[in-house]
Model the fold of this input.
Amino acid sequence: MTKLLHPKATAVWLVDNTTISFKQIADFVGMHELEVQGIADGDVAAGVKGFDPVTNHQLDQEDIDNAQDNPAFKLVVKFNAAAAGEDKRRGPRYTPLSKRQDRPASILWLVKFHPELTDGQISKLVGTTKPTIQAIRERTHWNISNIQPIDPVALGLCKQSELDAVVQKAASKNVGDAVMSDDERRKLVSTEQSLGMEAEPKIPTAIEGLETFSLSDDDDEDGEDTTKGDFSDADSFFNLPSGDGEEQP
Done:
């Protein structure tokens, strides 16, 4: 969809040079009808110079004539092939000067907790360069000893939704829809999905490996356990066989 250049200045020009209704102008420039009325009353956009949409190839004179004759006519911005794709951001994200010193900390956090992210994804997410990311990955950054990993969302370098989208994209590329263990899934799925999962039961390290043994008598169903004796009688317990086969008193 082609976007309008200088919408407020265009609204000023249309109010001053045409008899198009405030509602038609408001729909065309993306403003509220009361704002357009304020422009006509001089309360809004005072001192703003009008921007001619006809001269600048955003409208045809025929469209303006039709709008003036028909209050129901809807103005539409002319398609400009040269402006196609201009609404998409190009290059790395712009980071304010006050936050640029926080980028190494956010890069270290992403490298540590989301190793599945590529350098290009991290670069677009926090607005940095690939050499800086590589230096932090390899711990050759000049200030690596003083950098502490901090969540880029907490630093205001990106939105949580943007981070979740990048992590989800990396996860689907690497492992499809499969979710790994409880310790690894937080690195491979979005924050929203990870928080919604139930924690996996863990076996204490002291008895790790004993889960392969059965505590029931199912394994002895096919044969008798010869190591067990009947010691229900106390006398039979103490009357143990002697070496010569005679019972001791």
